[in-house]
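Minutes, project check-in
Item: structure for the 561-residue chain
Input as provided by the requester:
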Amino acid sequence: MSKIKSDIEIARASNINPIEDVLKKFNIPNDPHSYSPMGRHIAKLNLEYIDKLKDKKSNLILVTAITPTPAGEGKTTTSVGLNDGLNKIGKKSIVCLREPSLGPSFGMKGGAAGGGYAQVIPMEQINLHFTGDFHAITSAHNLLSALIDNHVYWGNKLNIDPNNIIWKRVVDLNDRSLRKIKINLEKLRANIARDESFEITVASEIMAIFCLSNNIKDLEEKIGNITIAYTKENKPIYAKDIKAHGPMTVLLKDAIRPNAVQTLENNLAIIHGGPFANIAHGCNSILATKTALKLSEYVITEAGFGADLGAEKFLDIKCRKAGLKPSCVVLVATIRALKMHGGVEKDDLKKENLDALKKGIPNLERHIHNIKKFGLEVIVAINHFITDTDKEVKIIQEQCTKLGIKVSLCTHWSDGGNGAKDLANSVVKLCEKSDASKFKYLYSDQIPILEKVEKIAKEIYSAKGIEVNDEIKKQVKKIEQAGFGKFPVCIAKTQYSFSTDPKLKGAPSGHILSLREVRLSSGAEFVVVVCGSIMTMPGLPRNPAAENIKLNNKGEIEGLF
């Protein structure tokens, strides 16, 4: 039996085209007014060119997944495979993805460029520094931190309370040692030592603003509206009050331009922005999605983690902010992951286990029912593994048939676009009968913040209710009295369960969603609700992926996956 090639080996052996050839398929002129090459295989699209493109009737397809497990689901792989499949059947399609973070690339998850024969390339650059967008976001974020502390140092004209500076610092790595630190410890002209903390860059409000901005002016305005601190009289201080929004926007002027790359089958992919879905809103930039919609018939986009997090936030936050209406949703599942939800340990997943699969299927059913609450049609994509048996596949097909849901068995990991042609044809049929007027948000802007949280808890997580202490109520009241009560909510919780307990697999119900903290993102225009023990600065696992990443004797990267 021949050795199965690793993702990086497949990517390195692929026939990668010059980026101008890929862009030419979508009639993007090869001139400096349209895009700027970043080497031979990556380009940054110019905002002036994007602005001149006319809106057209195009179909937006959201790819989401069941609740993630260590067995893997393959959402990005399926997104890329579906895009290649649509192009295989003669449709003009573009896939829009998030940029990978260095945190998981060197941590536990690995990269986020797809896998097998359904990848975006150049894989090494995309998974590492790419075009430097994350570095620009990190720099802009920490520039604001430096300007805040500098303002306090030079006399504190705005009367900022040093103990009520709420803007934290960020770094694009998993570094638990930075969760709580002390700064200003050297003897300065004033006693301004204080507690500080770091979050990972993908949790930054700058990242959220970056992905929810329609243009550079919108970006600057939103940055200016960031709440950074409060005075001793409890008056909010905004980034624009210390004139930070101008220089921060300058640092982001190139990063805000969408990045164009290609799939292994030389189809166009736009990769831009990358908030996590468990601690942020989990979608690529509005700019990337709207650009793709202007250029193609079909746009495939993914939302992070399971549908209870990524899809809900995509629909209730991104679509609300951008005025987007998806044509349909693809729900990715693996038989391996469903067996884990049915109680099987990871080491035993290769064995056929019909009972465990039946016990795990309620997780899939819950996500299907949840998506339908938004008025959207859904198709289940089984991301096929060679250990899957015909009996196991049949169980999922029969169960979905009872629910009136089409199932497509996909082999894009091993067969590329050919392995997703059935899914592509099914998606086309769903889009043809799609009725955009049926799409609806889960909750209204007008209802109070805690009612929005309770609506998500009960309708999406099947919780019995929410638990709110007096301090949380006080925080929420303060936000609503300041005029931000109409903002959508972004719930930060574990991705591994419908509940806040990551060990509670399957489709738990009747639990309580306990609110730990509420944060106002006045620039990004949503309210972050932190639940359970979720960390906005992850740590590295005992054996991080970084231990296996190195350069070989040829100067090539090894160990990246």
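Outcome recorded: The chain is about 35% helix and 20% strand.
No further action items on this chain.
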